[in-house]
Specification:
Largest interface: A-B, 82 and 70 residues
Number of strands of chain A: 20
CATH class of the largest domain in chain B: Alpha Beta
Strand content of chain B: 5-15%
Strand order of the largest sheet of chain A: 3-4-2-5-1-6-7-8
CATH superfamily of the largest domain in chain B: Nitrogenase molybdenum iron protein domain
Distance between the termini of chain B: 26 Å
Largest sheet of chain A: 8 strands, mixed
Order of helices and strands of chain B: HEHHHEHHEHEHEHEHEHHEHEHEHEH
Distance between the termini of chain A: 51 Å
Number of domains of chain B: 3
CATH superfamily of the largest domain in chain A: P-loop containing nucleotide triphosphate hydrolases
Radius of gyration of chain B: 22 Å
Shape of chain B: globular
Helix content of chain A: 40-55%
Number of helices of chain B: 16
Strand order of the largest sheet of chain B: 5-4-6-7
CATH architecture of the largest domain in chain B: 3-Layer(aba) Sandwich
Radius of gyration of chain A: 35 Å
Oligomer: heterodimer
Strand content of chain A: 5-15%
Number of strands of chain B: 11
CATH class of the largest domain in chain A: Alpha Beta
CATH topology of the largest domain in chain A: Rossmann fold
Structural class of chain A: alpha/beta
């Protein structure tokens, strides 16, 4: 069997050439299948006497995969030629290239090649040689590739592009058969095509003149070869069919660079590339709302996670909302599992059910193969209407990579609010708009813009808590500690932006007189900056405090801001008494012990202070680099014998052996690296409050008190023997 | 609570990834963004443990992002326009230095849309390492479809030799590393078959290495344990090697009755005597009898207790029959996972009709009062959120995170005893 791909720019007459060629091949007694690979779906029209057949993609849209049959999509045309049309979406929607991929996948699955054809001819649109339209020239398909062109420059430009596509597949092969000229009757057309053929090293294997015979036979919905069998043009087709069938010598694709193509065919010098700044300024630079970007995007790092998932994590924290994930179920599944991972652990470890995360209100639009081809906007509209019937206060619609890639137009979402429900589109497009953290930022910003009422007046003793980390283990306990302090100071929490907040509390966000960040990391600072700029939101200048000193300072200043100094001082005194009591108890067991620490955390004073207050020797601190910004600072620099910023984790084994600490602290322990050293893990996000460091020191003290050892660490040979 | 949604089940992408990750010496490359990678890497690493530490620096190579399993090409907006070829080529060069026996490149949904010819990049290597690409796993397809299509590609890539079937040798089909206690499920079935005088050649997707999978044609019979994940593979093996297929009448061997049916059906097919296996199950039944007699004499339970299930139709069918028929429990809500029709949905309907409980199939699992739920961790968590006083038995992923150190299984007689233990203790918590 021979597989032939005919490529050409749209409108150049390649379908007419293809149909006549198929007819001519069949006339030789060959079994021929023609597959139209053009959304215009008219490749086989002349072979089918003008009849329009159901395309593969239309068929797939309504037929369950297990019921697909080749006989349903295969139609017999003139001279016994079998015909299939791939079809495609309406212009401007969906993804035509994906349609070709889908069609070929179905043909493979249905075993079309096992049908004993002598020739399969693919008639392919060659305007855009993307991955989809390039499928027919993949090595498992076309044995020979031909290009149909006129002498117009754009047609030759498309021809050259087709060769570039072919060259990408054929680094060391030769499958180009030649060029067919379908003349438009232009001046110097022939010369230009000959020049092109010489330049790319391909033969011009046939010339078809502009002729009324074509239009006459087309009017009768017949192939010219059938309708004017004795014409000179019919003879040319038969000759071409014979040539292609017999052709043994094929050519490597040698496309020209664009500049050379223009120079060769138009005799023009390549255009000068305008340098940046000489063009008109982009509208984004002159107006619009300010943009906020994640650190990964700013520093052009590989994207970690996707914006869709990050945004969904935040949106599901709005208590009376539903989020629609517009994409395939895999996206909704992955995001759902990500959001529920913390509550599952909390249920097991602490018996706590986290209300917003345990069964987050997420529905998937369930984009399938058909929607990938034809566009998913209509399916989304239906899903939205179904969701609105449940009367949530807000519906967030988040988009995934596939919906972004196929370019679904979701403008209609902006006009879908109901009296009960605000519809908020978040066009994250999977990771097309950035990483997980960008998604979080996008959600904070879009939710705020959609729901916060900027006209609400502030109340005297109310605060918002901003940007708590919903995935962090420490979040519930930190909140409890902070809420406890605020209660003692007589300060009301107005809104947790956004952690279980209702749409009502978000609407009244501005009732708070002060906003308190949970973390002053890049994310927290960016959200703060956004809320300050767009909502004029005043922020306290310290995030949730971690450690004794920080907590004392935080309460003192917060008390001063709200005029509640006495209550603040009383709280600090209680905290100090408890802290001192704990330190006094633990100190005898830890005094003089040598501490080594290698950590991703850049703020470690909460634990260094506890260690210093316990009289421990801080022998070594290594700060690992996990981001582009170095936030490491310490009040205890003089107390640390060795500091390495940034630290190279490759030195870990040697440094542990050299320093020989009594206690080694790290975020991730490794039996292979840390050996028998007494190793303890510390969290990346510690719990806020007076006793953050003491909590861990209590554990160390117990370990030293009993001089515990870990016998299991000696079983490594057994592990290698039985389990590795 | 009314706005909450049930657990969103994995689709064909996840099915495909875990099918191939279930081969011991494989490297699955996800040609896609890290958003599709992190979750699959984490679950694969926790289910089928092949590394000792979580420290990100131990997997700091460019494509690993601190995780042991499933390196990815971290596609971004640029790659969706210009193609992924360079990154795929680069990762393949890196992997060629390692000791994998099979390399599979699986496209994410986005990568599948752009249509890069990944298969072409994998072709032409002659180093004894099998390679293949899954250019599209489908969109929103069934987990089982993705799972089986991927395993079929594995067989196409490794080309198992045609061999004369060994007498009394079987393959177990439909097991997966995505199943709770997958290793011991397999072991439990192997032990039962061994008692009958049969041996297991391979259980594709459940931890076998490439060499073992290449011996797949040595089996005289393919036993489809889960039809949702094994029927199509069986058809493929039957077509390629002529190995006959046995689909278990009672579904996966969960509970005593289905376990007995399993050994009898396989033994009958192979002409073996199931007596030893029946004795093994009989001893477990005796142990259960003692416990149940004392438990029910004191509490009157478990008879009459309500139960709910969320599982594959085949498993739900077998488990429902056992809970009703052996323990006298009452079905409250039974929810089957989305999957290609296995024949068991109808079987379950008919059976429930017979005990006048067909409504259980329509009852929403998160909102229907129950005493014990057999499901994934999210469903159990969702029931707690809805304020129900019930206990949960994890029979599927995702897990709540309990670390199983002793060897546990859901299948065979040992699985029946484990389930019984959890039911009896769970009901004490709920009903006292």
């Amino acid at each position: 069997m021979m597989e032939v791909a005919l490529y050409g720019k749209g409108g150049i007459g390649k379908s007419t050439i293809s149909a006549n060629l198929s007819y001519a091949l069949a006339k030789k007694g060959l079994r021929v299948l023609q597959v139209g690979c053009d959304p215009k779906r008219d490749s086989t029209r002349l072979l089918l006497r003008g009849a329009r057949i159901e395309t593969v993609l239309e068929y797939l849209r309504k037929t369950p995969p297990d019921r697909c049959r080749i006989s349903d999509i295969l139609h017999e045309g003139a001279c016994g030629v079998h015909c299939i049309e791939a079809g495609g979406p309406e212009p401007g929607v969906g993804c035509a290239g994906r349609g070709i991929l889908t069609t070929f996948e179905l043909l493979r699955r249905l075993g079309v090649k096992e049908n004993r054809y002598d020739v399969i001819l693919y008639d392919v649109l060659g305007d855009v040689v993307c991955g989809g339209f390039a499928v027919p020239i993949r090595r498992e398909y076309a044995d020979k590739v031909y290009i149909v062109t006129s002498g117009e420059f754009m047609s030759l430009y498309a021809a050259n592009n087709i060769l570039r596509g072919l060259a990408n597949f054929d680094r060391d092969g030769a499958r180009a058969g030649g060029v067919v000229l379908n003349s438009r009757g232009l001046a110097e057309e022939d010369r230009r095509v000959v020049l092109f053929c010489e330049a790319v090293g391909l033969p011009l294997i046939e010339r078809f003149p502009r002729s009324a015979l074509f239009s006459e036979s087309e009017r009768e919905a017949r192939c010219l070869v059938e309708y004017f069998p004795d014409s000179e043009i019919a003879e040319k087709f038969e000759r071409l069919a014979g040539f292609i069938h017999e052709q043994r010598e094929l050519y490597a694709a040698s496309p020209l660079p664009d500049d050379a193509l223009e120079e060769r065919l138009l005799g023009q010098r390549p255009p000068t590339l305008l340098s940046r700044g000489k063009t008109a300024p982009a509208s984004e630079e002159t107006g619009g709302k300010p943009a906020f970007y994640s650190k990964g995007l700013v520093h052009r790092e590989p994207l970690q996670g996707c914006a869709f998932s990050g945004a969904l994590t935040i949106c599901t924290q709005v208590a009376d909302s539903i989020s629609i994930a517009h994409g395939p179920n895999s996206c909704a599944h992955i995001a759902y599992q990500n959001i529920t991972s913390t509550p599952r652990r909390f249920l097991l470890e602490r018996g706590i059910v986290l209300p917003c995360q345990a069964a987050p209100p997420i529905v998937s639009s369930g984009m399938n193969e058909s929607l990938m081809v034809f566009g998913g906007a209509e399916a989304l509209r239906q899903k939205l209407e179904e969701t609105l019937r449940r009367k949530p206060k807000a519906v967030f619609v988040l988009t995934t990579c596939p919906s972004g890639i196929i370019g679904d137009n979701l403008e209609f979402l902006r006009d879908h609010d109901t009296p009960e429900t605000k519809v908020v589109p978040l066009l994250t497009d999977g990771n097309l708009h950035g990483d997980y953290l960008q998604g979080i930022l996008t959600a904070y910003i879009d939710v705020a813009r959609a729901l916060i009422d900027p006209t609400v007046e502030a109340e005297r003793d109310a605060v918002n808590l901003v940007a708590e980390k919903t995935e962090a283990d420490a979040t519930p306990e930190s909140f409890e500690n902070v809420a406890g302090v605020l209660e003692r100071l007589g300060i009301r929490i107005n809104c947790r932006f956004i952690n279980g907040a209702s749409t009502e509390s978000l609407r009244n966000f501005k009732r708070a007189r002060l906003n308190i960040l949970a973390y002053a990391d890049y994310m927290g600072r960016t959200i703060q900056s956004f809320l300050e700029k767009e909502f004029d939101a005043p922020f306290f200048d310290a995030p949730f405090p971690v450690g004794f000193f920080e907590t004392c300072d935080w309460i003192r200043r917060l008390g001063a801001f709200f005029g509640k100094e006495d209550a603040a001082n009383a709280l600090i005194a209680e905290g100090r008494a408890r802290y001192d009591r704990e330190i006094a108890q633990i100190r005898p067991r830890l005094e003089g012990k040598r501490l080594m620490m290698i950590t991703y955390s850049h703020e470690i004073d909460w634990i260094l202070q506890t260690a210093c207050d316990l009289g421990m020797k801080i022998a070594f601190v290594g700060i690992l680099n996990f981001s582009q910004e170095n936030l490491f600072k310490t009040r205890f620099r003089e107390r640390i014998q060795e500091v390495h910023v940034p630290y190279d984790n490759g030195n870990r084994v040697a440094d542990i052996a050299r320093v020989a600490p009594d206690l080694f602290l790290t975020n991730y322990a490794s039996i292979e690296h840390d050996g028998l050293t007494l190793t303890e893990t510390i969290p990346l996000c510690p719990v806020a409050g007076f006793l953050s460091g003491v909590h861990y020191a209590r554990r160390w003290s117990e370990l030293f008190r009993m001089n515990l050892t870990e016998g299991w660490k000696h079983d490594e040979p057994l592990y290698r023997k039985y389990s590795a | 609570m009314s706005l909450c949604t049930e657990n969103i089940a994995p689709d064909s992408l996840t099915g495909a990834i875990f099918a191939v990750e279930g081969v011991k010496d494989v490297c699955v490359v996800l040609n896609g963004p890290t958003g599709c990678k992190f979750y699959h890497s984490a679950i694969s690493d926790s289910q089928y443990i092949r590394s000792l530490s979580f420290h990100p620096s131990e997997y700091s190579e460019r494509f690993h992002f601190g995780q042991a399993r499933i390196p990815s090409t971290f596609l971004d907006a640029h790659d969706y326009v210009f193609g992924s070829r360079e990154k795929v080529s680069e990762i393949l060069r890196v992997l060629a230095q390692k000791d994998y026996k099979l390399i599979a490149v699986i496209n994410s949904p986005g990568a599948a849309l752009i249509g890069d010819d990944v298969e072409h990049l994998l072709a032409g290597k002659n180093d004894g390492v099998a390679r293949f690409a899954l250019e599209s796993t489908g969109y929103s397809g069934y987990f089982g479809t993705g799972y089986q299509n991927a395993l079929i590609k594995v067989f196409d890539a490794i080309e198992p030799a045609r061999r004369k079937p060994r007498k009394n040798a079987v393959n177990l089909l439909g097991l997966s590393i995505y199943q709770k206690h997958f290793e011991n499920n397999r072991r439990a079935l192997e032990d039962l078959l061994k008692d009958c005088g049969a041996e297991v050649i391979a259980a594709p997707g459940a931890g076998d290495d490439v060499e073992t999978l290449k011996r797949i044609a040595e089996a005289a019979l393919n036993v489809v344990v889960y039809p949702e994940y094994g029927r199509k593979i069986a058809e493929k093996l039957e077509s390629d090697y002529g190995t006959p297929t046995l689909i278990l009448d009672e579904g996966p061997p969960i509970g005593f009755d289905a376990s007995e049916a399993f050994v009898r059906q396989v033994a009958r097919f192979l002409g073996l005597d199931p007596k030893n296996a029946e004795d093994r199950i009989g001893r477990a039944r005796a142990r259960a009898y003692l416990t149940l007699a004392r438990y029910s004499s004191l509490l009157g339970l478990p008879k009459g207790a309500l139960f709910s299930i969320k599982a594959e139709a085949s498993l739900a069918c077998a488990l429902t029959q056992w809970l009703c028929g052996y323990l006298g429990m009452i079905p409250a809500a039974i929810s089957t996972l989305p999957d290609a029709e296995s024949g068991f949905t109808e079987k379950l309907e008919t059976w429930l009709d017979g005990i006048h409980c067909r409504d259980a199939l329509q009852n929403p699992i998160l909102e229907t009062p129950t005493h014990i739920v057999f499901a994934d961790g999210n469903t159990i968590s969702g029931l707690k959120l809805s304020g129900q006083k019930c206990c949960g038995v994890e029979i599927a992923l995702p897990t709540l995170g309990y670390l199983d150190v002793t060897e546990k299984t859901l299948l065979g007689e040992r699985g029946a005893l484990l389930l019984l233990e959890q039911i009896l203790n769970g009901l004490r918590f709920v009903l006292n």
